[in-house]
Design brief:
This protein is of the alpha/beta class. The protein contains 25 helices and 16 strands.
Length: about 725
């Protein structure tokens, strides 16, 4: 065997002398390992992909090239062993997806049997006149044992096996696979919605939801593949019948015409070999068909087949007892052999007795376990409430008893889980718009609330409350005028404008009058949305900030390491992000925010001052978020006089500055702001308030108390490419 010696790269062009004969095993002085050109058998067997490819090519080769009898016996043994292994796996798996490769295995097993049929047909027609072992010892043994010297019996047994396989097992398992595939595909959207609803409600985690989606996709793909794979078995049975007919007819012709045999001798010799060949093929085919039937009929049954059968058949001792009594009664009928029926009746009766005892033991153990748990709970009664009290729901929705249909599934109702679907959409929307990962919403029924009431809690403190009626609709007049429709007049819980609850039958009339019509789930979801947006700063925890920073792209992680924790801690970054979220500024662009923090952290450590600098770096984002439908940024400016008034009212130095303005002056400012913005709203504008950078935080602190939805910008936050539109001045 030739060898290649690794050389130094600098001398790669130097010639390498061949190794002398007899010195190949001697180590070289350099100690450099030798690399063999041809891989060893051990390494080849370790490559499953190569072995698999060679196996498939071997099966195809059997179809083309003649096969000697000793290889024929060996490959037939492989086929039988392979089919038995398939059945054992189908019996012992707990659920069908554990054997998801079954369609591929079924194709390989069918291909192997057909290849062996072709190889045996070649041997039978070529050497059938030489004796019963012309096609190998395995085919001879099967033919002689089953037929017992009578080829007519062999033909009948073979025909029955084919009918059982083709008509009963294959047809039934194919129908089950077809129905399972159809139902699995039809139920897939509903199951996906159920997974998403559980995820949005916080019942399951993201990893668990991802795994459930993968299992659902694998299940649909498996049953779809099984629907098609069942056709392999059907085609195999048909091919077996045709091959058998061809072998018998062709063998008789070959024996009589070419080998000078009599008609009877040719029929007996070739039929013996053909039926033996058919049995060797059909028995593995029958085993694989039974395996397919076991696999597709296992849907919904957990555990291996033996455990499932025994546990479910013995679940009702009364049925076993009645069956045993009937067997014993039939034993006394005239002409009926008593011993078999007595044995079966006694076995069924004993099974009923044993099952009853087993159920009693289970009940006793269950009772003992409950008593032990009760005693343990009493012993730990002083400790459990303390541990339980430490747990806190960051976001909780409590609903009255009449609102339970909003979260309970109805049978194929298009409105099922409408609330949970909207909560899921809300979480996704907040993550996209604000860069804020909303905590899971825990939904509870609270008997202390009125039937139609709901309560929104932030860290178990009430943050919003309202009432909705699930069988009615809320209508509102966009201008805030009273509603002129019969119903229950109320106040919209989110924005506090007049509204009314009307019957579903008045929907069309309300739409014709130009009213805004909202269903109950949307009313609650809107209130929840605004409540969360008003409290995003409180919900942004240290852990959430740490997770957001860790998920940043790798090329921005270096910047984070440069400033944290040497110049600012994660808590400091959290405080800056909370300041931005308080005014509903998106924190999704974390890399830009960190760059802005790195720019100013050397001159100021005040989170408010840092946040103001970050806002100037987010000018493009802020302008785009507050632009109108036409792309213009409408704004109301603060007059120079009021700018001076706010500047004069500031007391303190640097980070300790505070606003100390006279109450009368503050009231005047509030009145002017309210009038200007109401006038702008009447003209269809939704402007922002524009101030100088120095007074913006203090103006915002005043605006937030009476008009929190008004966005206050500084002149540093105006992007050069923004389209500006002046609406008024205060």
């Amino acid at each position: 065997m030739s060898e290649i010696t690794a050389t130094d790269p600098n001398t790669a062009n130097s010639a390498e002398l061949p190794t002398p004969v007899g010195t190949a095993d001697k180590p070289k002085a350099s100690g450099v390992p030798k690399i063999s050109v041809f891989p060893s058998l051990k390494s080849l067997l370790g490559r499953a992909d190569i072995v698999f490819a060679l196996g498939i090519m071997g099966i195809l080769t059997i179809m083309i090239l003649p096969l000697p009898t000793y290889l024929m016996d060996f490959t037939l043994a492989i086929s039988i062993t392979f089919s038995i292994l398939i059945m054992m796996n189908a019996l012992f798996i707990s659920k069908p997806l554990e054997f998801s490769v079954f369609p591929t295995v079924l194709l390989i097993a069918t291909l192997l049997r057909l290849a062996l049929n072709l190889a045996s047909t070649r041997l039978i027609l070529s050497h059938g006149h030489e004796g019963p072992d012309a096609a190998g010892k395995v085919i001879e043994a099967f033919g002689s044992f089953v037929m017992q010297g009578n080829f007519i019996i062999g033909i009948i047994v073979f025909g029955i096996l084919v009918l059982v396989n083709f008509v009963v097992i294959t047809k039934g398992s194919g129908r089950i696979a077809e129905v399972a595939a159809r139902f699995s595909l039809d139920a897939m959207p509903g199951k996906q919605m159920a997974i998403d609803a559980d995820l949005s409600a916080g019942i399951i985690k993201e990893d668990e939801a991802k795994q459930k989606r993968e299992d659902l996709e694998a299940e649909s793909a498996f049953f779809g593949a099984m629907d098609g794979a069942s056709k392999f078995v059907k085609g195999d049975a048909i091919a077996g019948l045709i091959i058998t007919f061809i072998n018998v007819l062709g063998g008789i012709i070959v024996g009589v015409v070419q080998n000078d045999m009599s008609m009877g001798d040719a029929a007996e010799a070739y039929t013996l070999l053909t039926i033996g060949d058919g049995l060797v093929s059909q028995i593995p085919a029958l085993i694989v068909s039974v395996s397919a039937g076991l696999l597709v009929s296992k849907a919904g049954v957990k555990g291996s087949a033996d455990k499932a059968l025994i546990s479910q058949l013995s679940a009702y001792p009364k049925g076993l007892g009645i069956a045993g009594s009937m067997m014993i009664g039939m034993a006394f009928l005239p002409g009926i052999p008593m011993i078999p029926f007595f044995i079966m009746g006694g076995a069924a009766g004993y099974a009923a007795y044993a099952s009853t005892k087993k159920d009693q033991m289970k009940k006793m153990k269950s009772t003992a376990k409950l008593l032990a748990e009760e005693l343990t709970s009493k012993e730990n009664a002083d400790d459990e409430p303390i541990a339980t009290a430490l747990k806190m729901d960051e976001l909780r929705l409590e609903i009255g008893i009449n609102l339970l249909p909003l979260i309970q599934n109805k049978d194929n109702d298009e409105e099922e889980d409408r609330l949970t679907q909207q909560i899921k959409a809300l979480r996704r929307q907040l993550a996209t718009d604000m860069g804020f990962i909303m905590p899971s919403v825990r939904i509870l029924d609270n008997v202390r609330l009125e039937g139609n009431e709901y309560n929104i809690c932030i860290k178990e403190v009430e943050a919003g409350r309202g009432s909705i009626y699930i069988d009615q609709l809320m209508v509102m007049e966009p201008t805030g005028a009273p509603i002129d429709l019969p119903g229950t007049h109320t106040i919209e819980p989110t924005f506090g404008i007049p509204a009314s609850w009307i019957a579903e039958s008045l929907r069309d009339e309300a739409n014709m009058r130009g009213y805004t019509v909202v269903d109950p789930a949307t009313v609650l979801a809107t209130h929840l949305t605004e409540t969360i947006k008003n409290n995003m700063a409180d919900l942004l925890s240290y852990g959430e900030v740490k997770g957001l920073l860790q998920e940043m792209p790798e090329n921005h992680q270096k910047l984070l390491l440069d400033i944290c924790p040497s110049q600012i801690s994660i808590s400091g970054i959290q405080r800056v992000l909370q300041t931005l979220l308080t005014e509903r500024v998106s924190i999704r662009d974390l890399p830009t925010i960190l760059e802005a923090i790195a720019e100013i952290i050397g001159t100021s450590s005040n989170p408010s001052a840092i946040a103001e600098h970050v806002r100037s770096r987010l000018a493009r984002q802020i302008c785009a978020a507050n632009a109108g439908m036409n792309g213009n940024l409408a704004f109301i400016t603060l007059s120079p006089q009021w700018e001076q008034n706010f500047a004069d009212a500031l007391v303190g130095q640097d980070d300790d500055r505070q606003l100390a303005m006279a109450p009368s002056q503050l009231q005047e400012f509030i009145t002017l702001v309210r009038d200007q913005f109401e006038h702008a709203a009447a003209e269809g504008e939704n402007p922002v308030l524009l101030t100088s950078p120095g007074v913006r935080p203090y103006v915002r602190s005043i605006i937030d108390r009476f008009r929190s939805q008004t966005f206050v910008m500084s002149q540093n936050e105006i992007h050069p490419q923004a389209k500006l539109k002046t609406v008024g001045q205060i």
